[in-house]
Amino acid sequence: MSSQSLYKVSGNIAANALVNNDKYKTMYQESIVNPEGFWREHGKRIDWIKPYTKIKKTSFDDHNLSINWFYDGTLNASANCLDRHLAEHSDRVAIIWEGDNASEQRKITYGELHAEVCKFANALRSQGVRRGDIVTIYMPMVPEAAVAMLACARIGAVHSVVFGGFSPDSIASRVIDGKSKVIITSDEGMRGGRAIPLKRNIDDALKNPDVTTVEKVIVLKRTGGKVDWVEGRDVWWHSLMETASEYCQPEEMDAEAPLFLLYTSGSTGNPKGVLHTTGGYMVYASMTHEYVFDYKAGEVYWCTADVGWITGHSYMVYGPLANGATVLIHEGVPNHPSPARLGEMIDRHKVSILYTAPTLIRALMAEGKQHFDKFDGSSLRIMGSVGEPINPEAWRWYHEVIGHEHCPIVDTWWQTETGGILITPLPGATDTKPGSATRPFFGVQPALVDNMGNILEGENEGNLVLLDSWPGQMRTVYGDHERFVLTYFKTFRGMYFTGDGARRDEDGYYWITGRVDDVINVSGHRLGTAEVESALVSHELVAEAAVVGYPHDIKGQGIYAYVTLTRGTEETEELRQELRQWVRKEIGALATPDLIQWATGLPKTRSGKIMRRFLRKIAANEVTNLGDASTLADPAVIETLIESRLNRT
Ligand code: ATP
Ligand code: MG
Question: Ligand 1 pocket: which of 163, 267, 607 to mutate (most atoms <8 Å of CB)?
């Protein structure tokens, strides 16, 4: 699993990339030894209204927590994404949009995007939105979602984007938490050929008697589908835009003024309202976007994440637009109407950089390579992965079938809380190993600690922590600073605890082993779920696997595996035995699954991550009180799994 499968940076890539290995090392060293000097320089990549003189005032001491970056400077995030490109690149395409139905296509230049954002910013003001107000955005994947976010930023309002797949209850809890006065939505959204009733979901959410703050609902007409209308409360986006002026001076914001609020995926429990501020976030999002994807002016960059996730914020809107990139936005899902869609879109728009998630790669793998027979892919240069550990098998498939073995893969580890990518290869600088997120980005100090908080040196495995702040770090849990301190800074004193476990190999590369809560303890040996799942997925008949521990009389914990087979494969007892032997051979006897349950689907968050907390309960036969299921994509999956759960012996 280590050096045998090293993918060397080709000389050609290194020669043209922003950094090579030597330069990475020098810059990294400088960023750690002299963070003030390093960030004083790199903070300049953002346009400041009043330049900062103070760089960093941070402490991870839980009694004296402070996180401040560039903190006497002022700026505006939307001006950094728009205005500063106008003088030279007003005609450059900022957004290429492809509808759920590929017959719908739009191109929006930086000049046009600037005008739309200014108008909508004025529209928001006309509806009573002021500096510091929290505006809830519940939109489909259309350019207007970015317009809405940037318009908030322009007038100093704080956006809280709620993913368009969430239910009325999830919307309500987020609106209540943020005390929003204004909601921005759309009549309907289109996803995979289906119309999603966004406005109706908002109407239902607002029927909740605990939602008391909302005064206005601004509605974009996307499909023209029928909607109910509340006079005085509901207003059409287009009627506000008809009269809005194209001139809107960006508000001068403090570096530490809130930019947005965003809830985590809820893989482990109740989502947390993560608050990000302006200056440090913009510096970090734009710098990571440029270095991690080796972004070059003029290239088409495609991030398949939804705008409702942090990846959609940092790497579809703020990072790339601050860098003047051309961003492809897709309304629907990249495997609809067929798995060929991903390749067709790359070829159609000559995409150079693709950023996606393991869940999509595994879904495509299960459908088979034949969908990429006609895929050319010659425009593609760099490919990224985010959201979950990527199984080496999925990594190789991505590398071969999509990247045609010439595109470096950046496996980017980060969190909603971190604002930007923290551990990742850099194209041209980092030899990659399938399944490893490799090395820290500039200014990032990861470490491994044991359960007592002792730092582990060298090749080792433990809890992944960060020893010092970086500019993109979250500043608080909105409305609950205590929870912020408790969740991240109390477990290991003086350190930020990520909640993830990791292994560091002989080259100093990090391998994320999964969430610490998911570690299985078999007869006193700790096994990461990611490792066992990867072994299962490396079998050609397995499409996806999720592994959890369950109470076992002799071993303490036994291994319970949920396995989804590739399309058309029969679920037989022989195959079950074969898979047990397979894992035994791949990892060792200790890791042999005790029980394998066939699963036609796995419970996932709406961002596609496997939710092991439900699987743990089903495996333990505790099916009466499963806990908060609001962030689950398809609740029916759970019922099916409960019905077909296995008898423990
Ligand atoms: P919650 O915090 O509410 O339980 P969540 O952790 O899924 O939800 P996110 O912030 O969306 O919310 O996800 C961050 C987590 O995703 C990381 O802590 C890690 O567990 C996982 N992750 C993200 N990228 C990678 C990666 N490249 N490799 C391994 N794991 C990753
Ligand atoms: Mg998390």
Answer: 267
Tell me how far apart the alpha carbons of residues 220 and 231 are, in angstroms, rounded to a whole number: 16
Which residues, in sequence order, are CB contacts of 168 under 8 Å at separation 6+? 201, 202, 204, 205, 207, 208
Q: What is the residue with the minimal CA distance to atom 19 of ligand 1?
A: 388
Helical H segments across 66-109, by residue range: 77-81, 83-89
Prediction pTM value: 0.94
Nearest C-alpha to atom 28 of ligand 1 is from which residue? Answer: 389
- Which residue's CA is minimally distant from atom 11 of ligand 1? 265
Q: Which of 430, 464, 425 minimizes the C-alpha distance to 446?
A: 464
Q: Please tell me the distance from the alpha carbon of residue 486 to that of residue 570, in angstroms, as a whole number.
A: 47
- Smallest CA-to-CA distance from 559 within 518, 589, 591, 581 is with 591
Residue 28 burial class via C-beta count within 10 angstroms: exposed 0-12, middle 13-18, buried 19 and up: buried
Q: What is the ipTM of this complex?
A: 0.99
Query: Closest ligand to 308 CA?
Result: 1
Beta bridge partners of 95: 108, 327
Ligand that comes closest to the CA of residue 515: 1
- CA 649 – CA 647 distance, rounded (Å): 6
Q: Residue 386 Cα, ligand 2 centroid: separation in angstroms? A: 13
Mean pLDDT (whole number) for 71-95 = 98
**DSSP secondary structure letter of residue 646:** P
pLDDT tens digits along 165-179 = 888 988 999 999 999
d(CA 411, CA 390): 8
Ligand 1: lining residues by beta carbon, under 6 Å: 264-269, 271, 386-389, 411-416, 437, 498-500, 512, 515, 609
